[in-house]
């Protein structure tokens, strides 16, 4: 689950990770109220969307006066912000973070993420922080320091020393820097994060270390034990079909192609996407209705897939185990009658009660193409497209 910068900074404050003073604002008026509270200029007005690269896209601006702060708030609120992370369609900005402008001496980079290869949290850091970090990673990867934290031992002092040395943290700031890294690691583990990124982490002219930007992703699979973090979820930032699917416990991911897929089981879903690509078609989505789906869930799955205008044909690939084929077929018929499918549908079904399932489909009067196996199904869907 992604959260906004202002929420990530709220979390940082709870863990004593230093951040600039600031607050979220939903209108020009609120933005000015926050600016007044900060008690001095410049202030920085920052678009809050679930994507980075805002600075380069015109979503982060320094306001030297109250007048300018109002103008900038007007300009950014309601804009469709396009950055290298939003894709060409951009994101509508509905909230701002207004914070105290900082006197930046140096912009550094610091992040933590889960490294699957070593099964450890890796800390990545660079002296070359700021808005061009992607280029640093691509062209001069040696400028990125990596420290692997043993989950049993936690961060060791020598590792903090290595980081401080690598980032050339000046002596008066070292203790504060070490504390910040320790606190950030505590936050990462306690909240089941998959990513925490501070870019830039700044050194001020008077040797303070401060998180100027904050990106936090929380492992969605761990949300059940972080009910307090659920309030940070922002449905405006999520794909509407994915939100709808999550209400019915369907594993749904929107993709770029035009073949809608309904499959039971993640492994089968992956195999289905592979084989239809091999046959020359492109998946429009990944939809796993799960092992024990009910007829209602199947109905919702089909309804959600048909909401997507890119979908020009649907492939239903079911291996009946816990989900029996007859239950599944009932769901398909129910959904088809309610939504009125007017695009080709190919069905491949195998497993428990397959004959009953096939009979339900055949008797339904629906115009479905049946396939004998996965390869046949892929060829038929590619032909239909
Ligand atoms: P993004 O990563 O989405 O571009 P950032 O929060 O990193 O957004 O902001 C972009 C740049 O704006 C930073 O690299 C920094 O130079 C400047 N900036 C951001 N917040 C402040 C602030 N509070 N004071 C001064 N400059 C800031
Ligand atoms: Mg940034």
Automatic annotation (TrEMBL):
Substrate binds at residues 264, 321-323. Its EC number is 6.2.1.5. The keyword Magnesium applies. GO terms for biological process: succinyl-CoA metabolic process; tricarboxylic acid cycle. It catalyses: GTP + succinate + CoA = succinyl-CoA + GDP + phosphate; succinate + ATP + CoA = succinyl-CoA + ADP + phosphate. Mg(2+) binds at residues 199, 213. Binds 1 Mg(2+) ion per subunit. HAMAP family: Succ_CoA_beta. Belongs to the succinate/malate CoA ligase beta subunit family. Heterotetramer of two alpha and two beta subunits. This is Succinate--CoA ligase [ADP-forming] subunit beta. It comes from Desulfocicer vacuolatum DSM 3385. The gene is sucC.
């Amino acid at each position: 689950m992604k959260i906004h910068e202002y929420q990530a900074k709220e979390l940082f404050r709870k863990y004593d990770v230093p951040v600039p003073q600031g607050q979220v604002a939903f209108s020009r008026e609120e933005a000015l109220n926050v600016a007044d509270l900060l008690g001095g200029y410049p202030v920085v007005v920052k678009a809050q969307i679930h994507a980075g690269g805002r600075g380069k896209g015109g979503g982060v601006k320094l306001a030297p006066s109250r007048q300018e702060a109002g103008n900038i708030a007007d300009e950014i609120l309601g804009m469709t912000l396009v950055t290298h992370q939003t894709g060409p369609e951009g994101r509508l900005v509905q909230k701002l973070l207004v914070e105290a402008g900082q006197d930046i001496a140096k912009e550094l980079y610091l992040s933590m993420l889960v490294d699957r290869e070593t099964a450890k949290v890796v800390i990545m850091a660079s002296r070359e922080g700021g808005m061009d970090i992607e280029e640093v990673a691509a062209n001069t990867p040696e400028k990125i320091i990596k420290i692997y934290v043993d989950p049993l031992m936690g961060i060791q002092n020598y590792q903090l020393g290595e980081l401080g040395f690598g980032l050339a943290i000046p002596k008066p700031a070292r203790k504060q820097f070490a504390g910040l890294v320790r606190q950030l690691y505590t936050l990462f583990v306690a909240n089941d994060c998959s990513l925490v990124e501070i870019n830039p982490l700044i050194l001020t002219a008077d040797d303070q270390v401060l998180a100027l930007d904050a990106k936090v992703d929380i492992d969605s699979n761990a949300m059940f034990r972080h009910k307090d973090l659920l309030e940070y979820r922002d449905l405006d930032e999520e794909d509407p079909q994915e939100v709808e699917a999550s209400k019915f416990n369907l594993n749904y991911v929107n993709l770029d192609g035009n073949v809608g897929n309904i499959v039971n089981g993640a492994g089968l879903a992956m195999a289905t996407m592979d084989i239809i690509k091999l046959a020359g078609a492109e998946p429009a989505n990944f939809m796993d209705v799960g092992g024990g789906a009910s007829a209602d869930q199947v109905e919702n799955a089909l309804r959600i897939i048909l909401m997507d205008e890119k979908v020009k044909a649907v492939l239903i690939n079911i291996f009946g185990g816990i989900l029996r084929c007859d239950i599944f077929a009932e769901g398909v018929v129910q959904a088809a009658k309610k939504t009125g499918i007017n695009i080709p549908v190919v069905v491949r079904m195998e497993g428990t009660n397959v004959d009953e399932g096939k009979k339900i489909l055949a008797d339904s009067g629906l115009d479905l193409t049946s396939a004998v196996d996965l390869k046949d199904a892929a060829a038929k869907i590619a032909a239909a497209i």
